[in-house]
Design brief:
- The chain is 44% helix and 19% strand.
- The radius of gyration is 32 Å and the shape is globular.
- It is built from 19 helices and 21 strands.
- By secondary structure, it is α+β, with helices and mostly antiparallel strands.
Length: 544
C-alpha cells in the first residue's frame, strides 16, 4: 500500500507541476502580446495616420512590423519605436513621399517567380524565316489568332505553301487577320520591277471563311512585316523583320527575329496599335513581367503647333534611357528586346507629292538620332538595303563625334540604285573631314537587311527591322524595328554582318562617277565602278 500511495502521490505531483508550467507559459504569452501591442501603438502614433494607412495595406508589412517589434522590444523597450522604424526594410510609394517615415532599403527586393522566356531568335535569310513561319502555323489550334502583314506578296512556290498553311489553319478554326500593302508606294514599286501580287488569294481565303478570316489591302503605306501568333491557352510568338514573301527573295541577304512570350507579343501588337477583327483575348499563361512604358513619339497631325526641331530634341532626351540602360540580366525577354515603330494613320496625295509627313506617330528617326549621337558607343556596324541623303545624315552624326562606322550595302539593289550611290558618295566625302572613320563596302548579292549594331565597352545594342534609312520610311510609312541587348542574338547578328563585310568589296571615293546623257539620250558612264546620275538619284529620293 505504501508503494502504491507513493506512486499516486508522484503522478499527482507531476500533473501539478505541468499545470503550473502551463499557467506560467500562458502568462508569459499574454505579457508578450501586451508588450507587442503597446509597442505597435507607440510606433503607429509616431509614424502618423498617413503612413499607418500605407503600411496596413500590405500583409507583408504587417508581418514584418510585428516580427521587428517582438524581436527588439525585449531587448530595449524604451527605444522600441525609433529602432523598429529604422529596422524596417519594406518601402511603399506612400512611405517614400511621407516625411514621417524613412525606411531602409538594404535588404534585397522580394523575388517573384517568373516562367523562363526564350531569348529572341535571329533568323537569317528567307528559308529559315519560312521554316519558322510554317512551324508556328502548324502549331496553331482552334481559338488562336494569326495577324499576318507583309509589304509584298509575290507569286511563287513558297508563297503557295504559305497560303496553303493559312487555309489549313482556317479550316482548324484559327482566326486570321490578313493584310498586304496595296498603297501607291508598293504599287509603283511593283510596276517598276514588273512583279505581281497574290493579294487576291488572301481575299479569296477571307471570302471562303467569312466568320474567322478577314483581309485588308492597306491603302496607307505599311512597310512593316510581321506574323503574330496569339495563343490564349499557350505561349504566343511572333516573327518580324525585313523579309517579304515570294520566291525571288530566296537569295537575298535579310534578317528576321522570332520572339516567344505572351507579354512581349502583346507589347509588339500594342506598339503598332493593331486594331483587328479578332482582338487578343485574355491569356491564361501570363509572363508576370511589367509592361514597358510607352515611348515618347514624334507626332504629325493638322493641329500640331510645336516645331519639328523641338519635338525631335524632346524625343531624343526621353529616349536616351532606352539606349543607355544596361540590363543586369538577360533572363527575361522584357530586358532583352523593345520595339520602336512608325505608325502612319493617313495618306495624302498632296503630302506625298510635297514629301511632307503623313498624319501619324513616328519614333524611328528620333531614336536613331539618339543612337548615333550617344557617346557611349565608339563604333557601329550597319547593313542597309536603301539609303538617301537624309539617312546618311544620321550616320554622319556618329562620324562627327569620332565613332567609326562600317557600312555594307548592295552593289546592285533592285530599286533606288542611283539614290543609294549618291548618298554613299556624299557620306564618304563628308567623312574625309570627320574624326570618325567610315569603312564602306558593297556586296555582290542583294542586301535587303535593315540592321545596325552599336558597340561600346559595356554593352552591345542592335536595331533590326523593316525601316530603311530613307525620308519616306521616316515620315510616311508604318515601320517596325526591334532594339535588342540580348547577348546571344547580338553575337549571332554581328557574326552574320561580319560575314557580309568579308564577302564585300571596299569602296573608295575614286569608285564614284557621275553618269551623263548625250544628245541621243543614251546614258554612259566614265568607267567608274559606282557611277550614278545625279538627276535620276534625286528622282529616286523623291519617289522612295
Amino acid at each position: 500500500m505504501s508503494s502504491l500511495a507513493w506512486r499516486i502521490s508522484s503522478v499527482r505531483g507531476d500533473l501539478e507541476a505541468q499545470t503550473r508550467n502551463s499557467r506560467a507559459a500562458n502568462t508569459r504569452t499574454a505579457s508578450r502580446a501586451a508588450i507587442m501591442s503597446q509597442g505597435k501603438h507607440r510606433m503607429m502614433s509616431h509614424l502618423g495616420k498617413e503612413t499607418l494607412h500605407a503600411l496596413q495595406t500590405s500583409k507583408a508589412t504587417r508581418k514584418l512590423l510585428s516580427s521587428n517589434i517582438v524581436g527588439y522590444i525585449h531587448k530595449r523597450p524604451s527605444s522600441a519605436t525609433i529602432t523598429c522604424t529604422q529596422r524596417l526594410s519594406f518601402a511603399t510609394k506612400s512611405s517614400v513621399a511621407s516625411p514621417n517615415l524613412r525606411l531602409s532599403t538594404t535588404l534585397s527586393p522580394r523575388k517573384v517567380d517568373r516562367p523562363n522566356n526564350a531569348s529572341p531568335e535571329l533568323l537569317c535569310g528567307y528559308r529559315n524565316t519560312l521554316q519558322a513561319l510554317h512551324t508556328d502555323l502548324e502549331q496553331t489550334v482552334a481559338g488562336d489568332t494569326i495577324i499576318f502583314s507583309v509589304y509584298v506578296l509575290e507569286p511563287g512556290n513558297s508563297t503557295m505553301l504559305v497560303l496553303d498553311a493559312l487555309r489549313r489553319a482556317a479550316e482548324r478554326g484559327v482566326n486570321l487577320d490578313l493584310s498586304v500593302d496595296r498603297s501607291a508606294a508598293s504599287r509603283f514599286t511593283s510596276w517598276c520591277e514588273g512583279t505581281k501580287s497574290r493579294a487576291s488569294d488572301m481575299l479569296a481565303l477571307a471570302q471562303a471563311f467569312p466568320a474567322t478570316v478577314s483581309f485588308k489591302g492597306q491603302t496607307v503605306p505599311t512597310h512593316a512585316k510581321y506574323i503574330i501568333f496569339h495563343r490564349p491557352n499557350a505561349t504566343s510568338s511572333a516573327i518580324f523583320g525585313g523579309v517579304n514573301i515570294g520566291d525571288r527573295f530566296e537569295d537575298w541577304k535579310d534578317f528576321t527575329i522570332r520572339v516567344k512570350g505572351n507579354n512581349v507579343v502583346q507589347e509588339l501588337a500594342e506598339s503598332l496599335s493593331l486594331h483587328t477583327k479578332h482582338p487578343f483575348a485574355s491569356t491564361t499563361h501570363q509572363d508576370q513581367l511589367p509592361v514597358i512604358c510607352p515611348v515618347a513619339s514624334l507626332r504629325h497631325d493638322k493641329s500640331a503647333s510645336t516645331s519639328r526641331t523641338s519635338l525631335v530634341q524632346h524625343v531624343s532626351d526621353v529616349l536616351s534611357s532606352w539606349v543607355k540602360r544596361t540590363p543586369r540580366s538577360s533572363s527575361t525577354l522584357k530586358e532583352c528586346i523593345r520595339f520602336v515603330t512608325n505608325r502612319a494613320e493617313g495618306c495624302s496625295i498632296w503630302k506625298m507629292v510635297m514629301n511632307r509627313p503623313f498624319v501619324g506617330t513616328y519614333n524611328v528617326e528620333p531614336f536613331l538620332q539618339r543612337l548615333f549621337s550617344d557617346r557611349q558607343y565608339n563604333s557601329y556596324t550597319v547593313a542597309m538595303a536603301y539609303m538617301d541623303t537624309r539617312g546618311a545624315a544620321l550616320i554622319q552624326l556618329a562620324l562627327e563625334r569620332g565613332a567609326d562606322v562600317s557600312l555594307v550595302m548592295p552593289l546592285h539593289p533592285n530599286v533606288y540604285q542611283d539614290a543609294n550611290r549618291k548618298a554613299l558618295c556624299r557620306l564618304m566625302c563628308a567623312s574625309e573631314s570627320t574624326s570618325g572613320k567610315l569603312h564602306a563596302f558593297t556586296h555582290h548579292s542583294m542586301i535587303h537587311a535593315k540592321a545596325i549594331i552599336a558597340h561600346s565597352s559595356k554593352m552591345t545594342t542592335s536595331v533590326l527591322g523593316s525601316c530603311n534609312l530613307k525620308q519616306r520610311s521616316f515620315t510616311q510609312f508604318t515601320e517596325l524595328n526591334a532594339i535588342s541587348v540580348d547577348d546571344a542574338m547580338n553575337k549571332a547578328l554581328l557574326t552574320k554582318m561580319d560575314d557580309l563585310v568579308h564577302e564585300s568589296r571596299p569602296v573608295a571615293l575614286s569608285d564614284f562617277g557621275e553618269q551623263w546623257i548625250d544628245g541621243s539620250m543614251g546614258i554612259h558612264d566614265k568607267g567608274n565602278l559606282l557611277p550614278f546620275w545625279d538627276l535620276k538619284a534625286n528622282v529616286e529620293e523623291w519617289l522612295g
